[in-house]
Design a protein that fits this description.
This protein is mainly beta. It is built from 1 helix and 11 strands.
Length: 194
């Protein structure tokens, strides 16, 4: 049900953006995720994943825009000092981002990212175990980043920091396992109303 809600919000915003008088872009994007869980000292190291999906941007003024996205994001962590033990999380995310253009083609991005967990797997020496019941279905993160855009596409990076604890462990636990992701991406514009 939450997946339908995320997708519905994305398409409502997309439709509203397309009927406005401002400039509008739609396209696809993808890139690399470097992710981990928790705070330093929590026993996790970074692992590689990817992100892939669609974006829609509406520019209200030359200096201000809003971008919505619908992405498949592979995240998780590797257990420190044990290269064979990994947590692989697959999320459907729907970032909502404010973009402030301080130079014509360069913007600072800040926003929020709701996400829904599609799959959670522990990989231990080649064996795979579902840990879906041990991970919260809903993730909520803050975003900050920078983007360089041209009419045909863009390149950028973001830091995504989880706000909520991802594990169903006791709330009295001192260690909070929050998603932490460095998100590098390129995008290709398919529709540009400028």
């Amino acid at each position: 049900m939450k997946i339908k809600g995320i997708i519905t919000v994305f398409f409502i915003v997309l439709t509203a953006e397309s009927y406005s008088q401002s400039s509008y872009q739609f396209g696809f994007k993808g890139g690399l995720n470097i992710s981990t869980l928790g705070e330093q000292g929590a026993g996790f190291a970074s692992k590689l994943g990817y992100n892939l999906g669609f974006y829609s941007e509406k520019r209200f003024y030359q200096e201000l825009g809003v971008q919505t996205e619908l992405l498949l994001s592979l995240q998780g962590a590797r257990v420190e000092n044990i290269s064979d033990l990994k947590l692989n999380y697959t999320y459907l995310t729907a970032p909502i981002i404010a973009k402030i253009y301080f130079i014509k083609s360069t913007s600072i991005e800040a926003g929020l990212q709701p996400g829904y967990l599609l799959r959670a797997v522990q990989v231990d020496d080649g064996d795979r175990f579902s840990v879906r019941d041990d991970v919260y279905s809903f993730d909520f993160s803050g975003i900050i980043g920078i983007n360089y855009s041209k009419p045909y596409g863009s390149i950028g990076f973001r830091y995504v920091l989880g706000i909520n604890n991802t594990t169903n462990a006791s709330s009295s636990s001192e260690v909070k396992y929050k998603n932490k992701v460095l998100h590098l991406y390129i995008s290709k514009t398919l529709i540009d109303s400028e």
